[in-house]
Amino acid sequence: MPPIIEFKNFSYKYRTQTKPTLKNISFSINKGEKVLIIGASGSGKSTIAKCINALIPSSFPGTIEGSLTVCGLNPEKEGIFSMSKHVGTVLQDTEGQFIGLTVAEDIAFALENDNTPIDEMLQKVYEAAKTVNVESLLQSVPGALSGGQKQRVSLAGILVDNVEIFLFDEPLANLDPASGKKIIALIDDINRTQGKTVIIIEHRLEDVLYRDVDRIILMENGEIAADTTPDQLLCTNLLVEKGIREPLYISALKYAGCSLKPEDKPERIETLNVKPYKDQFLSWFHKIEKIPHSKSSNNILEVKHVSFRYEQNEPLTIKDINFSIRKGEMVSIVGTNGAGKSTIASLICGFFKHNEGQILLNGKDISNLSIKERGEKIGFVLQNQNQMISKSIIFDEVALGLTVKKVPKEEIKKRVYEVLKICGIYQYRNWPVSAVSFGQKKRVTIASILVMNPEIIILDEPTAGQDYAHYTEIMEFLRKLNRELGITIIMITHDMHLMLEYTDRAIVISDGHVLADGKSSSILTDEDITQAASLKKTSLYDLAVKCDIKNPSELADSFIYFEQNKRYSLGE
Questions:
Q1: What are the phi and psi torsion angles at 336 (to 5°)?
Q2: Deepest in the core among 33, 168, 235, 392, taking most CB within 10 A?
């Protein structure tokens, strides 16, 4: 049987670029395979996806060399509509994919285009919704759903069309850990039970490997750096060399000097045979330094007995919230989609007014301060970057706050350039914002806040859609601001790696109240808390259990301290 997808000596250059984005690549994917494509930003992985679903060259004109066949067809000649009958795409930004006013209308969109009889349409919509567990939401408005529900609705929209290939562009970017696991499990179930070919493009390698994949294609600078099984790839150093985050348990074993072998099944911590490495790992663990406890200081922000409801007759969204943030802290606020994390940040910034309680900044009640007055002290980077952008050119967007404050032009230029360099987007300073990727737009919005030098920076999912190199660059810059300038950093995040690696303390929100407030490593090794708040125990916890370490949080602390010291010793 011929491959369902085949690239042969394929190159592609966007019309606006001087060099090819894809350079003479050759690979094939067989029917029913599940393949993960990974690589740093700009490596070409998203361009591969656009070639498969015919967005290239239909929507992104350029020069093609070599050949590509998908389901025996040439996407270049068939066009987007024809290829949509064979390739279903779930975008990273699901909101940009919704068409209908209700979930049912959105799922039915492809069927309506095909003039499907109404009775048949209703049946197919219900069956697709049931497959992805959203049948109870058919009359809901898509925009009001949680991130995980939106992903499921988008998936149902391609299930009804009975396509042969499912293409996912960063399906986990905006999901909490529990929702992410459910989506990966659902994708795996569809792959196994329906025999669909699945291609996943994702930065969060360890989360995708929650379920088996047949192959991983590693991209670098438009070329294929590796095309192999997960077990084979994880035993090499290619991921680190190409700027991809390894699974935490793999990094820990390698830090201990263990040479992993494919036959020990390292693809997942659950399948890993740890016996050959246990003694060497424990020897390393007992020798490394333990992370020091941070010193306490004065509170900069206090939230006291705060409650909030959106409408007068609605139940409370935020219920008697109490917590304080010390000056100079880096803190995570975590919890499931819809728990109230972003609402709390909006109350602090003054976007909404709380119904009860107090919010204090440096000991003073800020209830009567305007959004602008609070913005002088508290910077907020929204999760949806499109809601923050008001200028067409990147430099102008980042400079906007300084321009409004009438800062001298030369100082604006200096400060904007400095922040753009650190955020990794200096080379795009004169580009239209619309011309850069989802992840690059996120860095533009972060830069526009950082350039104002606020006392507190609140970031809502700061690393969503970022590759490991840019993730590290941004987070190390935030850490530098925190350590050297004393700026307090609060991060609303679904990224358990970020929570563990960069914040000693986490505030866990569940159903509008504080479920836990404590050390990040302790929270991520508490099964009751992680389950109640839709968090995910890190694989370091499972590795500690497999190696008979009595207190798993000690391994997490030691690993992070070791990794930080290693990074600084290398001058990163």
A1: -70, 165
A2: 168
Helix (H) or strand (E) holding 359: strand 356-361
Residue pLDDT, tens place only, 439-460? 678 789 888 988 988 899 999 8
Report the sign of the C-alpha dihedral through residues 546, 294, 503, 250, in that order. Answer: negative
- Measuring CA to CA, which residue among 462, 465, 500, 509 is closest to residue 481? 462
19 CB-contact burial (10 Å; exposed 0-12 / middle 13-18 / buried 19+) = exposed
Question: Tell me: the pLDDT tens digits for 414-439?
Answer: 999 999 988 889 999 999 988 887 66
Which residues contact residue 487 at a Cβ distance below 8 angstroms, ignoring those fewer than 6 apart? 328, 453, 454, 455, 456, 457, 481
Backbone CA torsion sign across 206, 208, 212, 213: negative
Contacts of 189 by beta carbon, 8 Å cutoff, 6+ apart: none
Do residues 79 and 32 lie in contact, with contact meaning Cβ atoms separated by under 8 Å? no
Residue with tokens 């025999």: 195
Task: Give pTM, 2 decimals.
Answer: 0.80
> Across the chain, how many H-helices and E-strands are there?
24, 19
How far apart, in Å, are the Cα atoms of 18 and each of 15, 67, 159, 191? 8, 21, 38, 39
User: Given a cut of 50, is residue 571 above it in pLDDT?
Assistant: no
| DSSP classification of residue 143 | G
d(CA 78, CA 72): 11
State how beta strands 488-492 and 330-334 pair.
parallel
Sheet with 356-361: list strands edge to edge: 318-326, 299-308, 356-361, 364-365
Residues β-bridged to residue 333:
492, 507
Asked if the model's pLDDT at residue 485 lies above 90, the reply is no
Sheet containing 197-201, strands listed edge to edge, beginning at the edge strand earlier in sequence: 87-90, 165-169, 197-201, 34-39, 215-220, 223-228
Bridge partners for 415 per DSSP: none
Provide the token pair at 234: 């994880």
Q: How far apart are CA 539 and CA 270, in angstroms?
A: 9
User: In a 3-state reduction of DSSP, which class is residue 196?
Assistant: coil
What is the DSSP secondary-structure string of 506-553? Answer: EEEEETTEEEEEEEHHHHTT-HHHHHHTT----HHHHHHHHTT-S-HH
